[in-house]
Amino acid sequence: MSGSPQFAFLFDLDGVIVDSMPVHTEAWQRYLKQSGLAAEYVAERMHGKHNHELVGEFFGPGLTPAQIEAHGSAKEALYREMMQESLEARMVPGVRQFLDHHAGVPKAVGSNAEPANVNFVVDGAHLRPYFQAIVDGYQVERPKPHPDIYLKAADLLKISPSRCIVFEDSPLGASAGRAAGAKVVGVETHEALENVDYHIRDFRDPGLEEWLAGIKF
């Protein structure tokens, strides 16, 4: 594509490209049980939070930064082990076809996830060629719901955030896209979203292409 791109797509990872939240939940439950802790209400407590926050909630105060990091890393290693055999089956329906169909549109991943998990999905599902930029929550000072991840992704794609379309599955992520000045498509993999420009259940939505074609920047 010559010159400046007309628009770009920015994708969250978990819940948008891969339906990983059930596996994250089960991984936390297993890890907490292995650690001798109660594993109740995990799903309700974890959505949109960083591991250091979750470790503090689950294990309580008093841990050193090294202990917090160790618990978070151990849980994520368990998650990747559990996801290994089911990664392709857990791709959000239609996402690979959508990426193929819009091969000429600049694209980036913008996720709060740790780098190892982002790389695991992007490389394990052979998605890296689709994306010209990948930004994780450890590359910015403020993760979602702040706009920093999407602002950095737009900058790497050399396009104004106002000409980006963000695909998000969580209220925190949708807020980040809004705060960046982008249009937001709510991918309602697990919950209905408010304050988005368009709603889809997954990328097979019959109205998505028509909506995209009608956008005026």
Describe the protein's architecture and organization.
With 217 residues, the chain is an alpha/beta fold. The longest helix has 19 residues. The radius of gyration is 17 Å and the shape is globular. The model has no long low-confidence stretch (mean pLDDT 93).
Give the topology:
Blueprint: E1 8-11, H1 21-34, H2 42-46, H3 51-59, H4 65-83, H5 95-101, E2 107-111, H6 115-124, E3 133-136, H7 148-156, E4 164-168, H8 171-180, E5 183-187, E6 198-200, H9 208-213
Parallel strand pairs: 1-2, 1-4, 2-3, 4-5, 5-6
User: What share of the residues does DSSP label as strand, in percent?
Assistant: 5-15%
Order of helices and strands: EHHHHHEHEHEHEEH
Side-by-side strand order of the widest sheet: 3-2-1-4-5-6
Helical segment tally? 9
Question: In angstroms, what is the radius of gyration?
Answer: 17 Å
Q: Which structural class fits the helix and strand makeup?
A: alpha/beta
Low-confidence stretches: none
Quaternary structure of the protein: single chain
What is the number of strand segments?
Answer: 6
Rounded mean pLDDT is: 93
Helix content: 40-55%
Q: Kindly, what is the distance between the CA atoms of the first and last residues, rounded to a whole number of angstroms?
A: 18 Å
* Biggest sheet record: 6 strands, parallel
